[in-house]
Write a structure and sequence with these properties.
Largest sheet: 4 strands, antiparallel
CATH class: Mainly Beta
Helix content: under 10%
Structural class: mainly beta
CATH superfamily: YVTN repeat-like/Quinoprotein amine dehydrogenase
Distance between the termini: 39 Å
Shape: globular
Strand content: over 45%
Order of helices and strands: EEEEEEEEEEE
CATH topology: Methylamine Dehydrogenase, Chain H
Length: about 130
């Protein structure tokens, strides 16, 4: 579409590209898994609202962890299904201004997320 931009690219361990797209007509976007060998879209995950941008993290199993500007972190399996959705913005904040500062991973699959507005460490993923 004319009103979409690629914001961020990452690659899963199996070579599949994870593409973050921002839509401007509704301030939403989507996460796509795209074959690096033929460009075919494997799956799409829609983000209804919220400024999209980096960072994105991918674990060794190919699961995607993405922090959107709507205050949520999305944990998506390798088939494009939502596993968890964690709200990390403070209660009194405008979620669109909440940014994720970064991710850190542990060997057991647990990811930690740092929110820029709360300075709180949140856990998401396997336990």
């Amino acid at each position: 579409m004319e009103d979409e931009d690629i914001i961020f690219l990452a690659m899963r361990p199996d070579g599949v590209l994870i593409v973050i797209m921002q839509r401007y007509h509704d301030n939403g976007g989507e996460i796509l898994a795209v074959s690096s060998s033929n460009g075919e879209v494997i799956w799409r995950f829609d983000i209804k609202t919220g400024d999209l941008g980096p960072p994105v993290a991918i674990d060794i199993d190919g699961k995607v962890y993405y922090g959107a500007g709507n205050g949520y972190v999305y944990h998506i399996d390798r088939e494009g299904r939502l596993l968890e959705k964690l709200y990390v913005a403070p209660e009194d904040a405008e979620p669109v201004y909440c940014r994720i500062n970064g991710f850190a991973a542990l060997s057991n699959g647990l990811f930690f997320v740092i929110s820029s507005r709360t300075d709180i460490l949140h856990a998401i993923g396997s336990r």
